[in-house]
Each structure stands twice: as structure tokens, then as C-alpha cells.
Write a structure and sequence with these properties.
The structure is a single chain. This protein has 198 residues and is of the alpha+beta class. It is built from three helices and nine strands. Strands 1-2-7-9-8-4-5-3-6 form a nine-stranded antiparallel sheet, covered by helices on one side. The longest helix is centred in the middle third of the chain and has 20 residues. It starts with a helix and ends in a 7-residue tail after the last strand.
């Protein structure tokens, strides 16, 4: 649940990306706000590219290892003449709950101008997320388990209260700065029903 997501984000002490002001156009996925509510907004995102790797557990070691795999993949791409910037945001931690342990992944945004090669890595995939409607709750402060739980709960309750249908099993936490940043822009993302967020 949200506790899993923000336990991971709380150990994002060794950020492998460099912080950016929220949200430079060339560094972040672009979207259109189509509705605004007291506790959330409805955003329409165009298709976006990401590099993604699996998280094996909620432990700090596994989280840092996942980010290291993405960093190594970006470096190998650069050595082969392809460019995937490693200073783009957000970093997404996605959790899908179901039977057994939740499935978790870490994703880095890839801007449209990046040159993406076909270097094979069994642990990293380059994926395109289709156009999607995402319910987003924005909040500040250093990410923590408590703020993650609180904001995910607020978002789900607000969606139910306003009659929005949403994916009840998958959610993501988006961070836009290093943990050491003086300011923090954090988001909880929940997809509208009938859409899947990988």
C-alpha cells in the first residue's frame, strides 16, 4: 500500500538524479488539467516513455539496487551512442496489489527528444504508457510513510465521494526532487478505471 511506496521514497537519500525545479517542460511529462477538486485534480497525459525495473522487496538495498540498474542502463545506452537523460522527473514507484506480495517497480521518465536504442537488459524495460486520465493529489514535505498513507487515503476517499471510478489495486508515488532538496513536490497517482498503469 502507500506505506510500501513511501517507505521506499523515504530511503531515497542517495538520489541518482539531480533535482530540478518543478516542472521544466523538457524534463517532465506534459499534461492538461481537465478538472480541479479540493483534494485532487484530473490530468490528461499524452503517451510517455519510461525505463522501468522491478523492485524485489521494500528494503532500502533493493530500492537503491533498482535505481542503480536504471543508471547503468542509461550509461550503457550512452556508450552505444544513444541518449537517455538521467536528470528528468518524476521518479515513479508503482505498486500493484493482489494475491500475495504486491508487485512493485521503479520508473524514470524518458523525454521525447531522447535517442532510445535497443540495448537488451533482462532487468530493465523501455515502455510507452498510452494516453491516460490520472487522478493526482499534490502535497509537499519530505516523503515519508505517514504522509504517503495519509495522502493516498485522502485521494481514494475524495475519488469515491465525487463518484470517480478508479483502479483500486494500483497506485504510484511520484517524486520530483532529491530527498535533500529544500522543497518537495510529491504526488500520488491513481489511474481512472479501465486504464492500467505499468
Amino acid at each position: 500500500m502507500a506505506q510500501v511506496v513511501f517507505a521506499l521514497l523515504a530511503v531515497f537519500l542517495v538520489s541518482l538524479c539531480t533535482g530540478q525545479d518543478f516542472c521544466p517542460k523538457e524534463k517532465c511529462p506534459q499534461y492538461k488539467v481537465v478538472e480541479t477538486h479540493q483534494d485532487f485534480e484530473v490530468r490528461l497525459y499524452g503517451a510517455t516513455d519510461w525505463i522501468t525495473t522491478k523492485l524485489d522487496s521494500t528494503g532500502a538495498r533493493d530500492y537503491l539496487a533498482a535505481n542503480s540498474r536504471l543508471k547503468t542502463y542509461v550509461k550503457r545506452q550512452a556508450e552505444a551512442g544513444f541518449e537517455i537523460p538521467d536528470d528528468c522527473w518524476p521518479v515513479l514507484v508503482t505498486v500493484t496489489e493482489g494475491e500475495g506480495d504486491p508487485k512493485m517497480s521503479v520508473s524514470w521518465f524518458v523525454p521525447s527528444g531522447g535517442k532510445k536504442g535497443e540495448i537488451y537488459d533482462p532487468l530493465v524495460k523501455l515502455e510507452t504508457k498510452p494516453e491516460a486520465t490520472i487522478y493526482v493529489r499534490v502535497f509537499g514535505g519530505a516523503p515519508s510513510t505517514e504522509t504517503g498513507q495519509e495522502n493516498t487515503k485522502i485521494l481514494r476517499e475524495a475519488l469515491a465521494k465525487t463518484g470517480k471510478t478508479f483502479d483500486p489495486s494500483t497506485h504510484a508515488a511520484a517524486t520530483y526532487e532529491s530527498y535533500f532538496s529544500f522543497t518537495h513536490h510529491n504526488e500520488i497517482w491513481i489511474s481512472a478505471a479501465s486504464q492500467q498503469q505499468n
